[in-house]
Amino acid sequence: MKLLFDQNLSARLPALLASEYPGSGHVRWFGLASATDAEIWAFAAAGGYAIASKDCDFEQRALLFGHPPKVVWLRVGNSPTMAVAAILKERFPDIREFEKDPAASVLALA
Prior knowledge:
Elements: E1 2-5, H1 13-16, E2 25-26, H2 37-47, E3 49-53, H3 56-65, E4 71-74, H4 81-90, H5 92-100, E5 106-109
Parallel strand pairs: 1-2, 1-3, 3-4, 4-5
């Protein structure tokens, strides 16, 4: 699964997680640092990304509109980057199952 990391997450995460989530990127890399949620949503859907965010707005958008894109909602507060990376590595099997589930739009991780 390719993840598109939202502005509220570190731009270091794609490199830290390259072996688990190859092809992932950060919104800043694509000129989306100031983009609206709708613009990020459309970019992720067109590019085959799942959105990784701490923002509940994407969770709500996924529940309202369904997918694509899918949303990995990180309910981790102000966790350090390495803690976020550890959660995404530890939960990799769950995220793979989420990716395969045709009915699932949101995966909440804490």
